Sequence to fold (438 residues):
Amino acid sequence: MDITKEKIIVEPVVIPRDQHCISRANISQAALKVLYRLKDAGFQAHLVGGGVRDLLLGREPKDFDVATDATPEEVKSVFRSCRLIGRRFRLAHVRFGREIIEVATFRAGHRPEHADHQTDTGMLLRDNVYGTIEDDALRRDFTVNALYYNIRDFSVIDYASGMQDLRDGLLRLMGEPETRYREDPVRMLRAARFAAKLGFRIEPRTEAPIPDLAGLLADVPAARLFEEVLKLFMSGHAVASFEKLRQYGLFGELFPDTEQALAGQEQDFPHTLVLKGLENTDRRVAEGKPVTPAFLFAVLLWEPVRLRWLDLQGEGMSPYTALQVAGGDILERQLARVSIPRRFSTPMREIWTLQSRFAHTRGKRPHRLAAHPRFRAAYDFLLLRAEAGEADGALAGWWTDFQAEHAPGPAAEEAPAPRRRRRRGGRRRRKPARAEGE
Ligand code: ATP
Ligand code: MG
Fold:
């Protein structure tokens, strides 16, 4: 393991106010207040990361991160509504009304003298040493994420050709790519995510090691990967993310059973269902409609669930029970890679198990099914399966007509799935749906 790393001397390029397009009018009031107050208290204060990158690209930033030379305790002394969070590395959260601005003290990344901070694959365990702004720039992931907007003179400080890479639409890791991926394998997912979100190319040296190192994601805690999966698939560029992840062999690290099902099938529909589901998610995000991780994971894991469902039915299990068991099996295997909190995995499994109940279109059963709190999501899922050619289109149509006939009002089309009340009451009051005697 080679952990020697020369301290890189950087010559920052300062781009004065009149030579870049960042205007204070596009920075949130809360972020500006934080920047000014830190400055007035005698500290350095910069906007950094995705906020600066997106402003320079003329996009609306998702959030604003501030970097400063003030320690978290010093930040706390400047703001009344400030909370220090994080055990491993302390960050300050400053609140203004509904907005929270994350304020981080300049950090030094890995230094050779801290060899004990790494695992033997080179992964950083700690990354909690304060440093200078230069250190802080060097430990960031991509050059386009290492630009600082200085509130003192409204200039942008560029430590690593980030401005040029922004203009060229290039994602370039700071430093030696393999080392940086080993330090934190999530950077590979971030490369795919930013390539998808920004439509950037991954610079060849940054791109080359990814397929070989993808397996390192196995060492990343499942809870962190859950957060990354949400960012990849719920920010409006799910289809592009999916394609990038598959291109680089990363998707299989996150969803091994799905990857196997997609790779091992000749028919088109598994792929089609995932793509249609992700397209649907992107469309909803673009329209400002809510999307839920439960539906997303239901889509991403359906293909292995369906195959297992068929197997179990082949062994003589009833469709409903087989579907429940298949869902449970696949979920359990999946949780070893990417955690899914119960508040999402429970409705996800309901979306799946309800699929077998759509077959019953006589008597009271359709009414009972339509009253289920997860009916609407399960019906949307059925439509997706039908579109992908995997479920019976006529059956899906029957349910569309059924709802139109029994619609409670004209707005039924757009009505969200009814929410279950009494979240705190401990046990669910309604009885668990029984295996309807199939
Ligand atoms: P967005 O918020 O649009 O998803 P972002 O670039 O702001 O993108 P964040 O996760 O908010 O991403 O991180 C903020 C900044 O922190 C990044 O721009 C980058 O400079 C740095 N950063 C985040 N994660 C890492 C990482 N794993 N390794 C190195 N630097 C990181
Ligand atoms: Mg951000």
Q: What stands out?
A: Residues 49-50, 62-63, 65 surround magnesium ion (ligand 2) (CB under 6 Å). Residues 221-405 form a domain with the cca-adding enzyme, domain 2 fold (CATH 1.10.3090.10). The first helix runs from residue 29 to 40.
